[in-house]
Automatic annotation (TrEMBL):
Coiled-coil residue windows: none
RNA polymerase sigma factor 70 region 4 type domain location: 131-183
Domain of life: Bacteria
Name of the protein described by the UniProt record: ECF subfamily RNA polymerase sigma factor
One of the GO BP terms on file: DNA-templated transcription initiation
Lineage, broadest ranks: Bacteria, Bacillati, Actinomycetota, Actinomycetes, Kitasatosporales
Ranges where the record places region Disordered: 1-26
GO molecular function: DNA binding; sigma factor activity
One Pfam family per UniProt: Sigma70_r4_2
Annotated keywords: DNA-binding, Sigma factor, Transcription, Transcription regulation
Domain RNA polymerase sigma-70 region: 39-103
Stated family: Belongs to the sigma-70 factor family. ECF subfamily.
Residue stretches of biased makeup (Polar residues): 10-20
Length: 191
C-alpha cells in the first residue's frame, strides 16, 4: 500500500477555523489519516466496482489507484470526511468510463485489416510474368521501349512522352502501337 504523506495545513486556515469555532478537519477537508484508513478499508470494494465496469485486472487496479491519487490531491474540497468514500466511488466510475471511451476510440482508429494476401503460388506466377515482361521489354527497339515505359509505367500522356523524347506525337503513337504488338507476340511465345 502506498504511503500518503501529510500536507501541511496553512496557518491562516487554522486561525480562521479557531475563530469560527469549527473543527480543524472540517476547515481543511479530509485528512490524510482518514484517507489512508479509507484506502485500507475500501480498496478491495472499489477494485470490485472497477471490475464490474472494466474487463481486466490491471486496468481496474490502475483506475482505483488513480482515484485515490485524485482524491488525495483534492482532499481539501471534500469537506465532510464521511463523503470521502462516495467521492472515491464516483471517481472510480468516472475513470472507468474514461478508460472505456479510450478503448472504443482506439478500436475505431485502428487501421482496417489488410486484404487477404495472395498465395505463394500466385506470387510465384506474378514473378514469372514480371520476369517474362522484362525480358520481352528488353527485346523491343529502344524507342518502343522508351515510349511504353514513359506512357504506361511513368503514367505520362502521349503529348508528355513526345515532349520528353523530342519526337512528334504521331511517332509516339506509332512506337507505342508497334511496341505493344511486339510485346503481345513475345508474351504469347513464353506461354
Amino acid at each position: 500500500m502506498p504511503v500518503i504523506a501529510p500536507m501541511p495545513a496553512s496557518r491562516t486556515s487554522r486561525v480562521t477555523s479557531q475563530r469560527q469555532g469549527a473543527d480543524d478537519t472540517m476547515a481543511t477537508g479530509t485528512t490524510v489519516d482518514h484517507l489512508t484508513e479509507t484506502y485500507r478499508a475500501h480498496y478491495r470494494s472499489l477494485l470490485g466496482l472497477a471490475a464490474l465496469l472494466l474487463d481486466d485486472t490491471a486496468s481496474c487496479e490502475d483506475v482505483v489507484q488513480e482515484a485515490f491519487i485524485r482524491v488525495h490531491s483534492a482532499r481539501n474540497r471534500v469537506r465532510d470526511p464521511e463523503k470521502t468514500l462516495a467521492y472515491l466511488r464516483q471517481t472510480v466510475v468516472n475513470l472507468s468510463r474514461s478508460a472505456l471511451r479510450r478503448r472504443i476510440l482506439g478500436l475505431k482508429l485502428l487501421s482496417k485489416p489488410m486484404p487477404d494476401m495472395a498465395s505463394a503460388e500466385e506470387g510465384a506466377y506474378d514473378q514469372l510474368e514480371r520476369d517474362a515482361l522484362i525480358k520481352a521489354m528488353r527485346g523491343l527497339q529502344r524507342r518502343q521501349r522508351e515510349v511504353l515505359v514513359l506512357r504506361y509505367f511513368a503514367d505520362m500522356t502521349e503529348a508528355q512522352v513526345a515532349e520528353t523524347l523530342g519526337v512528334s506525337l504521331g511517332s509516339v503513337k506509332a512506337y507505342g502501337s508497334r511496341g505493344i504488338a511486339a510485346l503481345r507476340v513475345a508474351m504469347e511465345a513464353t506461354k
